[in-house]
Give the backbone structure.
Amino acid sequence: MGQVVRSICTHLFQGISVALIVATLGFLAVNLTRGDTALDIAIARYSEDLADERVVELVRREEGLDQPLFVQYCQWVGRILTLDLGRSLVSREPVTALLIHHFHYTFLLATAAIAVSLLIALPWGVLCGIYPGGTFDHISSMICSALVSVPQFVIGLLLILALAIRLHWFPVAGFFSPAHLVLPAITLGIGLAAVSSRVIATSLAEVRGSLFYRFGAMKGLSPFRVFTAHGIRNASIPVVTYISVQAAHLLDGVVVVETLFAWPGLGKLLLDSVLARDIPVIQGACLLIGILYVAVNITVDLICLVLDPRRRNRLATS
């Protein structure tokens, strides 16, 4: 148990460090690019017509943008230590409230996309893993390669043209009903399913070719019993790891898909904040993304410890 706690603490320390580094790089990237941050904020806040020189200077003083970058950064770190992410320079809303609001939509989209992916990938991958090297496996491999090669925005546009514009089955963009979730979830889920099915097939084929799997068949167990008792659990470890990594990737916001479908998630918030040079929101979003990756990594490690007794033994003896 002590080794497990130590592993979790190590992940927490690494994750917090990475999150701070990412937030710092985001801060530097926005501030060191050409342009006037105060001008961009004034335009985003009041419109281009009203953003005259007086308004720009007022924004610069109000938001402390006239101070050196090092002072601005130290002030942000000081607020982080008190769990205060500050306020948006554009809307003046608390950054924490903005992140919670938009993260809710990203989490909903990510969950739906993973569900779509598993519905497609599990039967597809299991069938390929049971009959590896066959005609179906080769055709599936080619289809997966083609789907992975197609950009997500192309898949999304095709779905919009076919299911929204031509057939009128689903709405095009926004989020006003559960029907708005279908197209972006399928867009993300298809790409995930293509890779997940190959991971499932490869993992299952390796397990079925192992000595312990063949030994179970030699003991007289039925093929179904061998598959459920020895195949699923051992083959699920790399699958769980891969799906969890993809979940972290989805939770930090798929900018292209969220922008294409005008989905009010974390990715779209981050893109809008970068365009408006809304530094507190950018830093807060980067910090949240780092924390999400830490949470997912810890969860994956704990699940793998449950699934694989060998890891628990290694931790106990180390």
User: Anything to note?
Assistant: The mean pLDDT is 78. Residues 97-276 form a domain with the MetI-like fold fold (CATH 1.10.3720.10). DSSP finds 14 helices and no strands in the chain.
